[in-house]
Each structure stands twice: as C-alpha cells, then as structure tokens.
Amino acid sequence: MWPLATHPTNKNELLAWDLAHDPSELPLLDVATLRQRLFIRSADLPEGVLRLPLKSVHLNKSPMVVRKLETLTPKMAERWGIDMEAALRNAEKAAALPDMSAIWPEVFQRPREATPDVDEDLYGGFINNADRRRLNQLRALSPAELAHSRTGFDDDRLVELLYRYRARNFAATLTPEDAERWEAHRAARLLEGEGGARNVDALFAEIDTLSETTDERGEAILGALYDYAEAIVPDGAPKKA
Fold first, then answer.
1. Do both 160 and 205 map to the same domain?
2. In angstroms, rounded to a whole number, what is the distance separating the alpha carbons of residues 34 and 18?
3. CATH number reported for the structural domain that contains residue 54 in this entry
4. What strands, in cross-sheet order, belong to the sheet with 2-6?
5. Is the peptide bond before 8 cis (omega within 30 degrees of 0)?
6. Distance (Å, whole) CA 141 – CA 101
7. Whole domain around residue 184: which residue ranges?
C-alpha cells in the first residue's frame, strides 16, 4: 500500500493505494470520475471501467499495517500472491504523483441530506427536562383530554410526534383536517415510498421472493406479513390478491 493522503473528514483514516496496481492514471481523473470509481459497485460500472484500488486504513483499528518492508519475506509474498517487483515499480510511480490533497475533500464530500422525518430522527438531539415533564403529563390524559390539550413544547419535533401518536392510537379524536393529513402521510410512505420507505408493492414482491424458498413455518410468517400490510394500507389502494 502507498499512503496518498489523510482522509478529509477523519484524521484517523489514511487513503492508500494498492500497489498491485499502477497508479499513473490517478492524477488524470476528475472529481466525478473518482467518485464514480470509488463509490459505485463494480457490477454497476460501465463495461471496461474498474473500481479504483484505493483503500481506507484506520489508524486506530485492526488489522495493523507494517511499515518495514523486510517483514514480508519472499516466502510470505509468494503465499499471498504479492508480486514484489511490480509493487516496487508502482511505488516509484506513486511517489512521483503530483500533490492531490486539494481534490480529496471534494471526492469524499457527502451530499447534503434532507431533514429526517421526525419518526426517524434518532440523532436529532435529546429533549430537555421540561419537555419530558410535559410528555409525562400528556400520557396521563384521556384521549379526549389529549385532543384539547395545549402543549407548549420547546422542541418543535414533539408537536408532530404528538399528532402522530394521537393518529395511531386515538384516530377518532382527530379533526377531519388532521385525519385527512394523516391519510396523506400514510399514502406517501406506504404507497409512494416517500423518504426512502419500503412501499407495499416492494414488500409484497419481497415476500413473494422469500416464499419460493421458505418452509412451512416461514410461510405462516410471510402470510402474517401479507395480512398486516393489507390491514394498514391506505383506503382505496389496491390489495394483494
């Protein structure tokens, strides 16, 4: 391996080139091509295009990396299929590469993620003690009292979470407008797969695939999943025959 640069967002991670491969093409590639050949699966790359043999070495994790070349004996190199002569030639080419430190932050830049749905915002931050007390008080109310309570949350997420809690558990207490909004949310998630959710069509297809190789117990479980999906699918949606 030949160290190329420190990972732009993780200082304990080193970007290294596998010296079984010639690194000469590396400085000729633009950001888009580098991203394509690093992050797209080999099976999804265009014909004739290969993934780049660039690896991440985590300095604070195993397995360890040995710097002293003499540690690799000819017998060990033969056992692991390492061509030392080719590796040394490629090391010379890697040492002569121009400085590419400015390009790696662009290559590894993550796309800006949309605001997560409140039901999935596990890492959006903890609620404060005042909101916890408010939630405990609300859970002690009857459904009718809950429908007319004032919340006053400090965390804006809790307003939507409380509304969904009522919709899931006490749908009869929703106003017609809130009930319509809840059905629209369910349709977006269950039918259209909004936010990356698995919609019912994808679920049915997956169950069909699994049923081809499962046993009797598995068939019962898959059948229960069918029944559950049909029970929660929004009104007016096609059901599985």
1. yes
2. 15
3. 3.30.1520.20
4. 2-6, 13-17, 54-58
5. no
6. 59
7. 118-232
For the chain, how big is the Rg over CA atoms in Å? 28
Which phi and psi (to 5°) does residue 46 adopt? Answer: -60, 155
pLDDT of residue 41: 79
Percentage helix, strand, coil, to 5, in the chain? 50, 5, 45
Q: How far apart are CA 149 and CA 140, in angstroms?
A: 12
CATH of the domain at 179: 1.20.1280.70
How confident is the model over 79-136, as pLDDT tens digits?
989 999 999 999 999 999 999 988 999 988 876 656 788 888 877 788 899 999 999 9
Nearest to 230 by CA among 178, 191, 182: 191
Contact 119, 53 (CB under 8 A): no
What is the rounded distance in angstroms from the CA atom of residue 70 to the CA atom of residue 62?
21
6 and 100 co-located in one domain: yes
Taking the model in full, what pTM does it have? 0.50
Which pair of structure tokens corresponds to residue 96? 């002569």
Half-sphere exposure of 164 (CA within 13 A, CB side): 12
Q: What is the pLDDT of residue 112?
A: 62
Indicate the length of the chain as a whole number: 241
Domain finish residue from 43, 77, 107: 107
Residues paired with 2 in a beta bridge: 17
